[in-house]
Write a structure and sequence with these properties.
By secondary structure, the protein is of the alpha/beta class. The protein folds into two domains: 1-127 and 228-252, no CATH class; 128-183 and 186-224, no CATH class. Helix content is 33%, strand content 9%. The protein has six helices and seven strands; from the N terminus they run βαβαββββαβααα. The strands form two sheets. Strands 1-2-3-5-4 form a five-stranded mixed β-sheet, with helices on both faces. Strands 6-7 form a two-stranded antiparallel ribbon. The longest helix is centred in the N-terminal third of the chain and has 19 residues, at 32-50. The chain is globular, with a radius of gyration of 19 Å. 25% of the residues are buried.
Length: 252
């Protein structure tokens, strides 16, 4: 389940003072009862349309807090994948004054349990790794090369998330995780990004076709090291193996 607060019923207007640079509202900006109503609406919509009760979740705009985890646990969700290790979303404003995104700078790269009153939630973080390595850019033009060299000095946080220009980075990330002690890798893409013009990243058919080409190369490589599985199935395996600790990023 993936919920964006601004287009999930019930409609509710936030009345607090607005941010100077107004962003779209996070679900965590709303009161508990409105949060619960929106979670119910999305959960019920999924059940009505496909006949399966969802058990996995990712927050819209990545924003989680303890209230959100508690509500998910009460609704029967067993796992979440909203945490982005090494990334601080504090510069991404919400709608109301003083509200910003979550800070996952110190979050664990590996799965862990978030303690909740009803039942613990398995957190399976997005695959993100910090690196100062030189990664060859898609083209050897001056600007991409300069950016790659700059990233060697500054460092960067790489996500397994395609943007049409980062195939080499994703392949590098896959190899790094495969050669580490981590047992999973998580890929992320919005379904709307497969539609020409459905996102600012992939504006036309050519961009989407290029996306498919890059995904095929990425998945061909990943299939040598990993097997595909749903987040829910993986979370159940982790629970049955009793291999999780209550650690990692603490929901504020």
């Amino acid at each position: 389940m993936h919920l964006h607060a601004w287009n999930t019923p019930p409609s509710f207007e936030l009345t607090g003072e607005k941010n100077d640079d107004c962003g779209l509202p996070y679900l965590i900006e709303f009161t508990d009862d409105i949060m619960e109503a929106k979670i119910d609406a999305m959960t019920d919509a999924i059940m009505d349309r496909i006949g399966i009760r969802p058990i996995s979740h990712r927050a819209g705009r990545w924003a989680m807090d303890q209230r959100y985890f508690e509500l998910l646990a009460r609704k029967g969700y067993i796992c979440d994948c909203s945490v982005t290790p090494h990334i601080n979303w504090i510069t991404s404003p919400g709608l109301t004054k003083g509200v910003s995104g979550a800070d996952y700078s110190n979050a664990s790269e590996e799965p862990y349990l978030v303690r909740c009153d009803k039942a613990d939630i398995v957190e399976v973080p997005l695959t993100v790794r910090d690196t100062h390595s030189f990664i060859k850019p898609a083209t050897c033009k001056a600007k991409p090369l300069a950016k790659s060299l700059y990233n060697v000095a500054r460092g960067q946080s790489l996500q397994l998330r395609p943007n049409g220009k980062n195939l080499n980075e994703m392949l590098w990330l896959e190899r790094r995780v495969a050669n580490s002690s981590s047992e999973y890798i998580m890929f992320m893409l919005h379904s709307s990004e497969f539609m020409p013009g459905g996102s600012p990243t992939f504006r036309d058919e050519a961009a989407v076709e290029n996306l498919y080409v890059q995904l095929e190369k990425l998945f061909d490589r990943a299939s040598l090291d990993f097997e595909g599985e749903t987040i829910g199935a993986y979370a159940r395996e982790l629970i049955s193996n009793n291999s999780l600790e209550r650690s990692g990023w603490i929901a504020r």
